[in-house]
Amino acid sequence: MTNVYLWLGAVILFGIIEALTVGIVSIWFSIGALAALIAAALHAAPWLQITVFLVFSAAALIITRPLIKKKILLRTTPTNTDMLIGENGTVDEAIDNLTGTGSVRIAGKVWSAKSENGDVIPSGSIVTVVRIEGVKLIVRL
């Protein structure tokens, strides 16, 4: 009977962990613990309970993870800075990756910038935003 309480505690613990996290991280183990709880209630040997837990957890993970990842976890939310990619701007301060200096003016706003290929880009040059890394625009001539 002790194993029943152990597996019930595991179901509750994994459920609490799942509720406290943003992503889906422990629901599969809750399913495995529930299956092991049923095995324990049917007086299965401890080694069989552990096997049931591992098999059901793995099966739940293998079957559902790709679906969940496709539907929920890969959603990305574009930000206002994403609209800068592909835009042209004027270099306000010469861009030098080695010294960590450089800024670009786009639509009246000044952004910190780095050169895509590491070349020094002089002030006044027209550049195109290739991507954004953190708070810096990565640009090319």
Describe the overall structure.
- With 141 residues, the chain is an alpha+beta fold.
- It is built from three helices and five strands.
- The chain has helices at residues 2-20, 27-41, 46-73; strands spanning 88-96, 101-106, 109-115, 126-133, 136-140.
- It has a five-stranded mixed barrel with strand order 1-2-3-5-4.
- Helix 1 (2-20) runs antiparallel to helix 2 (27-41) and helix 2 (27-41) runs antiparallel to helix 3 (46-73).
- The chain starts with a helix and ends with a strand.
- The model has no long low-confidence stretch (mean pLDDT 87).
In short:
By secondary structure, the chain is an alpha+beta fold. 44% of the residues lie in helices and 25% in strands. It has 3 helices and 5 strands.
Question: Which features would summarize this protein structure in a list?
Answer:
5-stranded mixed barrel; 141 residues
SSE layout and pairing:
Elements: H1 2-20, H2 27-41, H3 46-73, E1 88-96, E2 101-106, E3 109-115, E4 126-133, E5 136-140
